User: What shape does this take?
Amino acid sequence: MTNSPSPADAARTAITTTTRSHALQPSPPFGPVERTGLRIRLRRLILPIVLLALIWSMLTDWRLDAWVFGLPALAIAAGLLLAMPPSRRWRLSPVPTLFFALWFAVQAVRGAVDVALRAMSPRMPLRPGFRSWRTFLPEGAPRIVLANAVTLLPGTLSAEIEGERLVIHVLDNRLDHDRALADLESRIAAIFTAHLPEGEVAA
Amino acid sequence: MTAIISMVLIGAGTLFFLAGTIGLLRFPDLHCQLHALTKADGLGLTLIGLGAALLAGSAGDVARIALICAFAALSGATCGHLIARHARRGNSEARDV
Assistant: This one.
């Protein structure tokens, strides 16, 4: 705690980053949290590395000799995390996350059944096309979740993200995808209700 | 009983893989083929994983199967997006008129 930045410094960085990011993206419910400084970034590596080590141990049945491959992979992952620009930290709200997971599982099954039936139907009912969708979700994790979820939803595939614009390929452009997309967006927004405020990460 | 349920699940998973492959062969363009691969194969793997998890001997096996299915779904969606983006950018002069 002794060598963490003084409250005044923290406030100043918070203000500058806030104004900068708000210029890019005026979505009030999601305030930005950006942190700088190698010390803080190194500290941020702890959780991902512990998580990755746990996953590797589980995959390899806790065998020690498997670390011959695990350790270099972990080192590369840590290096990549350091090399990439720091992203905002989001807090997941547990109950909406659980509901989202259940809802999403059902949608993914529907999507798979839909495409399987289209593939096997003799008429092969396709009317493919691209469409554009402007998302209100903020940059970072929420948009990545959106892009990946769109791909598993019935009839839609995310083809490109350019800022807040998502290019979506649809299997059947006669269908109305707007409602499904808006529904998905609001469900994702419900998961990422809060970002971690400045200073709370250190605990 | 468990064996029967797991056989049904694995059989259904195989059907989805079959459908995904049929889609890959029949669908007219790359983007439609990606729909078949990402969605149908993902569910196929998950169903086979569920069936295998029912037959698995230990909690460790179940956890491994769950991890593999989760990572396959995640990487499938991400790779699908990357391939779609690459294809779109490559054809953008021809398509976006």
User: Anything to note?
Assistant: Confidence is low (pLDDT under 50) at residues 1-33, 197-203 of chain A. Chain A has two domains: 7-90, 92-191. The first helix of chain A runs from residue 7 to 24.
